[in-house]
Amino acid sequence: MDKHSTVSYYSHQLTCLDQLMAKVNCNIINFNDKVQDVVHQLDSRGETVNHLMVNLFKGYEAMSDKEFVACI
User: Fold this and answer.
1) CB under 8 Å, gap of 24 or more: what pairs does 18-27 form?
2) Within 13 Å and on the Cβ side, how many CA atoms surround 20?
3) Cα(34)–Cα(39) distance, rounded to whole angstroms?
4) Which residues contact 7 (CB under 8 A, 6 or more apart)?
5) Taking the complete model, does pTM exceed 0.70, yes or no?
6) Is 7 exposed, middle or buried (0-12, 13-18, 19+ CB in 10 A)?
7) Burial level of 55, CB count in 10 A (0-12/13-18/19+)?
8) Could you report how far apart the first and last alpha carbons of the chain are, in Å?
9) What share of the chain is helix, strand, coil (3-state, %, to 5)?
10) Among 68, 67, 66, 43, CA closest to 35
11) pLDDT of the chain along its 72 residues, tens only?
């Protein structure tokens, strides 16, 4: 049961990357580090990460730097 709830927690974090971007004050390095940590947490539990690119772009689009958003 603990593994299931932990996997659900980390999977949910990946669907809310726009909120994570706001949480790290649009710091792309911190954002990428935290995303990498979530992916590692899921991987260490034998889970595959689906739709990572879609969720990453959702997070990147939440940046306050509109030049960056336009570039991606």
Assistant:
1) 18/58, 18/59, 18/61, 18/62, 19/62, 20/59, 21/59, 21/60, 21/62, 21/63, 22/62, 26/62, 26/63, 26/64, 26/65
2) 24
3) 9
4) 42, 45, 47
5) yes
6) middle
7) buried
8) 39
9) 75, 0, 25
10) 43
11) 568 899 999 999 999 999 999 999 999 999 999 999 999 999 999 999 988 999 999 999 998 888 888 888
Give domain limits for the chain: 2-71
Q: Which residue in 19, 22, 15, 20 sits closest to 34, CA to CA? A: 20
- Residue keyed to tokens 């949480």: 23
Cβ atoms of residues 10 and 42 within 8 Å:
yes
